[in-house]
Amino acid sequence: MSLMFRNAINFNQDLNNWNTSKVINMYRIFQNTLSFNQDISNWDTSKVTDMSLMFWNDYFPSFNGKEMSFDQDLTNWNVSLVTKHIEFWNDKNIKWDKQPIFTK
């Protein structure tokens, strides 16, 4: 799934019922998807090892105001196998208390 919706700036479709049980890589999946704000809390992330830059915003929101819309709670995701989650996001609209709880 890596890079799947990268740069789809206006994408905002329902993905909550997707079967992600076999996914191991979510690297940059929502990078620059500025409009996306759908509930994906039901995603099975138990096999994922890489969530690096998953919600990264290249548009530097503090300089030009292009912020991401995503504001969903992901604290229930099973991220026990995730070893790469550097820069999970860099946008102020994605709250720290809603990120997955990484242990590695």
Provide structural commentary:
The chain is 4% helix and 0% strand. The protein is globular, with a radius of gyration of 13 Å. It has 1 helix and no strands. It is low in regular secondary structure. The protein has one helix at 61-64. The mean pLDDT is 89. The chain has one domain. The chain starts with 60 loop residues before the first helix and ends in a 40-residue tail after the last helix.
Q: Which segments are poorly predicted (pLDDT under 50) over 5 or more consecutive residues?
A: none
Mean pLDDT: 89
The span between the termini is 21 Å
Counted up, domains total 1
Could you tell me the number of beta strands?
A: 0
Biggest sheet, in brief?
none
Look at the helices and sheets and give the structural class.
little secondary structure
Percentage of residues in DSSP E strands: under 5%
Rg result = 13 Å
Seen as an oligomer or otherwise, the chain set is single chain
Order of helices and strands: H
Shape assignment: globular
What keyword list fits this structure?
single chain, 104 residues, little secondary structure, 1 helix, globular, Liste_lipo_26
List the helices and strands and how they pair.
Blueprint: H1 61-64
What is this structure, in a nutshell?
By secondary structure, this protein is largely without helices or strands. 4% of the residues lie in helices and 0% in strands. The chain starts with 60 loop residues before the first helix and ends in a 40-residue tail after the last helix.
